[in-house]
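Q: I'm writing a short explainer about Epoxyqueuosine reductase for a general audience and would like to include a description of its predicted shape. Could you first generate the structure from this sequence?
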Amino acid sequence: MLQNQQKYSDLIKQKALKFGFQSCGISKAEFLEDDAKPLENWLKNNYHGEMQYMENYFDKRLDPTLLVEGSKSVISLSYNYFPEEKIDSLDNFKISKYAYAEDYHEIIKDILKDLVTVLQEEIGAFHCRIFVDSAPVLERSWARKSGIGWVGKNANLITKQNGSFYFLAEIICDLDLIADHETIDHCGTCRKCIDACPTDAIISDKIIDGNKCISYATIELKNEIPESFKGKMEDWMFGCDICQDVCPWNRFSKPNLQEKFQPNSYLKDFKKENWQELSQDLFFEIFRKSPVKRTKFAGLERNIKFLMEK
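A: Of course. Here's the predicted structure. Afterward I'll give you a sentence or two in plain language.
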């Protein structure tokens, strides 16, 4: 039995790397005891702002066996999205690197489906569900438990080898696998992310007040952007990478090799004047397959107008 557990665990990690994933780690599917109180406090403090969905399925967020019946293991995976070229911000509005290209949800989900198919051919049939930022799964907690990386002061998962510019995904399954160990927190006394945040959204180690976060304001917030953000947005029209850009560990980030993550040509060619003339039709043409479609035309238009107000 133990021999098969090790064999299957090793096989899953080997195949994951062959399918382009950066890292793969395994955790036992059990209640996330250490995360229950912090999550409860974060919600009680209303740090989730208008993200009411974060209040839903509290138990499922903490217990994977409620999400996937009979599950025994959580396989955590990371997929690099760091771009080869950074879009010029001179006389331009900024967009988070993860949104430079096509929507990662479907791309990674398709890769996961192919990975599972290959695994079932070699291991035999097993019950599982795949997740790519699309269900009540505490992805960073599972990735932390599986040893992929540690949660930094900016609440992003960080690795010594690759920094933090990657997506997280999970396969929750009924295979009884060998669990990995957590890694050490290597942030030390560094405060670069905390000090660099122009809106003071990182209120303490690993705790983000969403109401103050530029990413939240430009993506999740449906109402008008509060006046408290005026003059502090640093030209971010969708998302924000400031706390990642200043992280010393991201000097080790390497360009991704995924063709579908190559920057949208419009983003490279546009300047502020072009964005100010954006129409509904052009928005759809540019962002039809992009994560930016989440904010909708009205949301992006609101962000651009707010940035232009002096």
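A: For your explainer, you could say: The chain has a mean pLDDT of 95.
Q: Perfect, that's easy to follow.
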